[in-house]
Amino acid sequence: MTHIDPVWKLLITTGFCGGLTTFSTFSLEVVYLLQDGRVVWAITNMLLNLAGSLAMTLLAFMLVRAFYGQ
């Protein structure tokens, strides 16, 4: 296996683990809402999380293009 720079290793590990815990928290919140019978809130939570994720991804692409002209 090739040597991985410690900085990249930290960034990859942190990003991966951070993504897993964020998704786990999101899933747990939805499950709790469904168990409480709050189906509308669970669906709203899912839709707002999805819309927010897509909006922030789009914003990131726009910022990269604005700053780097790509």
TrEMBL record:
GO CC: one term?
plasma membrane
Instruction: Report the InterPro entries cross-referenced here.
Output: FluC
The domain of life for this entry's organism is Bacteria
Predominant subcellular localization, coarse grouping: membrane
What biological processes does GO assign it? Answer: monoatomic ion transmembrane transport
Task: Name the reaction it catalyses.
Answer: fluoride(in) = fluoride(out)
Q: Which residues cross the membrane?
A: 12-34, 46-68
Is the Transmembrane helix keyword given for this protein?
Answer: yes
Which keywords appear in this protein's UniProt record, sorted alphabetically?
Cell inner membrane, Cell membrane, Ion channel, Ion transport, Membrane, Sodium, Transmembrane, Transmembrane helix, Transport
Give the record's membrane topology: Multi-pass membrane protein
Q: Does the entry feature the keyword Transmembrane helix, yes or no?
A: yes
> According to its UniProt record, where is this protein located?
Cell membrane
Family of the protein in this entry:
Belongs to the fluoride channel Fluc/FEX (TC 1.A.43) family.
Function comment: Important for reducing fluoride concentration in the cell, thus reducing its toxicity.
> What's this protein's name?
Fluoride-specific ion channel
Q: Which organism is it from?
A: Serratia fonticola
